[in-house]
Amino acid sequence: MFSKILIANRGEIALRIIRACRELGIRSVAVYSEADKDSIHVRFADEAVCIGKALSADTYLNIPAIISAAEITDVEAIHPGYGFLAENAHFAEICESCQITFIGPSPQSIRLMGDKMSAKETMRKAGLPITPGGTAIIKNKEDAIKTAKRIKYPVIIKASAGGGGRGMRVCHNDVRLISSLITAQAEAEAAFGSRDVYIEKYIAKPRHIEFQILADGYGNIIHLGERDCSIQRRHQKLLEESPSPALDKKLRQKIGDMAVRGAKAANYKSAGTMEFLLDPDGNFYFMEMNTRIQVEHPVTEMVTGVDLVKEQILIASGEKLSCSQEDIEIEGSAIECRINAEDAENGFIPCPGRIERLNLPGGPRVRIDTHIYSGFEVSPFYDSLLAKVITHGRVREEAISIMIRALNELVISPIKTTTQFHLKILENPLFVKGDISTHFIEEMLKEKQEVEV
Question: Rounded to two decimals, what is the model's pTM?
Answer without folding.
Answer: 0.93
